[in-house]
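The methods section describes the discrete structure representation at length, but only in general terms. An entry of this sort, consisting of the sequence and the corresponding backbone structure tokens, reads as follows.
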Amino acid sequence: MTEPAVTSAYSFVSSVNKDRSGDIVKRLQTSNQAHVPDDEAKPVEIYVLNGAERVVAGLVARVIWGWFEIVAIWVDEDLRGRGLGTELMGRGETEAREKGATAARFSTWDFQALGFYERLGYTQYGRLDNYPPGHTVYYLHKKLSG
């Protein structure tokens, strides 16, 4: 732990502390609630199971503030190219619409499946080069209705 730096009446402490970090996050969330509508996140989780009931693909997301926010999508490498990812995205978008989503957003890296998402109608609204070093992260969105 770093020694506290004292500036007038305040100490600056550089340390990992779950209680303090949790408190800071909670304060920010409380402050944000004065500016954004209160909306409970609605989970969207779709899994593809093989004959042994083992997960071989899946989509984990949520709908909040009218947006379908994709957290993760995965298809086992040996099953890619068989339409499972397309089916997962389609089912996820349908469920998201049913839960009130009018648009979708997520990010993907250059070594993931940017072309796949673009073929599904997603467009870039931003990118961050050299994150992590040597790679680019792309921010994508798509209108889901109207």
The helical segments are 18-32, 84-98, 114-119.
